[in-house]
Amino acid sequence: DYANTNELLADLNLMRDSLLENHGELIAKGELERAIRAVSAFGLIHATMDVREHSQMHHSALANFGISSDYANQEPGKRFELLIAELESKTLRAPKDLDVQSAKTLDTFRAIDELISQFGPEVIETYIVSMTKQPDDLLAAAVLAKEAGLVDIGAGIAKIGFAPLLETVAELRAADVILEKLLSNPTYRKLVSLRGDVQEVMLGYSDSNKDAGIATSQWEIHQAQRRLRDIAIKYGVKLRLFHGRGGSVGRGGGPTYDALIALPWGSLDGQIKMTEQGEVISDKYSIPMLARENVELTLAAALEATILNRGPRQSKDDLERWNDCMEIISDNSFHRYRNLVSHKDLPAYFYASTPVEQLGDMFLGSRPSRRQDANSGLDSLRAIPWVFGWTQSRQIVPGWYGVGSGLKAAREAGKTKVLKQMLDEWHFFKTFISNVEMTMAKTDLKMAERYVKSLVPKELHHFLDDIKSEFELTSQEINSLRGNDDLLGDLPLLARTLQIRDQYLQPLHMLQVSLLSRVRNAGENADPLLRRALLLTINGIALGLRNTG
pTM value? Predict the structure, then answer.
């Protein structure tokens, strides 16, 4: 058997060289070369996996290891020092009588080591720590990896790298502080050095959007990338950003080429990772011609961003003016959004006006729609059903709500000329406005009104009035900024496409409203056939709107 991909490639290359030396060019440059290309791309493993776990799981496991008598209650700074000492130590602490959850967490690292031993180092390269809030969250995973034999700083072994996942606005704002604390420590810096001086950081779009709204989420992610880039340059590390994008604009979706070109200079340096989720996968890759085009677009954008964006694309003065203007937009958008989502009655309105409760019955998604600490509110609801529910009822709040208030505040602050300059010259702002405008074109508040009137108690109807008001304001501000009379006024083909698609979606929406009412009224005694029909309308609407997941 071949121990790894390189051994197989060595034999294939030997065959090719021999054929070329003996007049076998047709085979060497035909089938054999295609085989070499395929093996180079996919190896013996087909795809490299990432493994991801919540930060709290690692701390819970380590609390049983005897690192400190009061490990669970230690301050993050003190815990950081304890964990660094553990990484440097040659002592293994894992007890044999771990509780079930702690044993499961440690066994994950042991399974990674087993897979790498069996299939080679490409099978798993990165361990992602979700909900990273402090530098010690990443170190906790590294210490567990040491216990499983994946990391040994003294022996120069680091079989996997570790990536923080920054998901909420607070963590995005602290991105540079977290990374600098890690890279400034000689022990962790040695770990990164053993991984080829590459530090991966994953950016979460979904939770930051659910937390703060589209404008603040996009702006904080953009700024976090700038700060992470500067820290990586300072410590001589190559930064690999992993964008956890969803299909919908509210979860970081939109045209991939535009998104890559809009990244801050220097944040993309020859390599990038992105997620492709939901129906986006079939839309982009189910047909070979489309798959090839989308891969080429991504590659072209990555090359362009790497080669042409090695320095600032704007003057320092322009960038300062644009930053100030975006702060005004972000702050005012954030306050408008938080006023809506923090209202005590919004959960009741959301669950009544959308089919989000039915998503748990569908055989899709990689995780439950709620986190383990589920309650009737919105905090435990995952970002995917949050966006998906609003989209089904055509309100699509996560994709645009608050932007109009932000633009209005900037205009009233005398920033009209700056806004127009930003739209003309700043890829980030141009892409942001374009994605918001496209989402608004898919919003249909007349249809949403049918959901609300049929399904929502009258005392909650004021939420739709508020949503309509912000929608009208956002439409006015974007049209004024672009100089158009209507949304997508400069993209008539796209506007026409969405209008045609709407004609087919309307019957599905009407059917969904009727079925939702009947299923809810029947409760647990609802006819399984009605439930099945309701789920089919959810699928149909998602397919019709496309970038919904």
Answer: 0.89
Evaluate whether 434 touches 262 at the Cβ level (below 8 Å).
no
| Farthest CA pair distance, the chain | 84
* Range from 62-66, 167-171, 333-337, 497-501 carrying the lowest mean pLDDT: 497-501
Backbone φ and ψ for 398, nearest 5 degrees, come out as: -65, -15
What sign does the dihedral 410-411-417-419 (CA atoms) show? Answer: positive
Give per-residue pLDDT as tens, 171-183. Answer: 999 999 999 999 9
Q: How far apart are CA 162 and CA 112, in angstroms?
A: 13
Q: Which residues contact 209 (CB under 8 A, 6 or more apart)?
A: 217, 250, 251, 252, 383, 387, 398
- Locate 500 and state its tokens: 């045609």
pLDDT of residue 496: 87
One-character DSSP codes across 379-446: TTB-HHHHHHHHHHTT--GGGTTTHHHHHHHHHHTT-HHHHHHHHHH-HHHHHHHHHHHHHHHH--HH
pLDDT at 381 over 60: yes
Pairing of strands 124-130, 161-166: parallel
Task: Tell me how far apart the alpha carbons of residues 87 and 191 are, in angstroms, rounded to a whole number.
Answer: 10
Task: Dig out the tokens for 530 from the structure.
Answer: 């009605």
Predicted pLDDT of residue 377: 62
Contacts of 461 (CB under 8 A, 6+ apart): 452, 453
Say how far residue 375 (Cα) sits from the centre of its chain.
Answer: 24
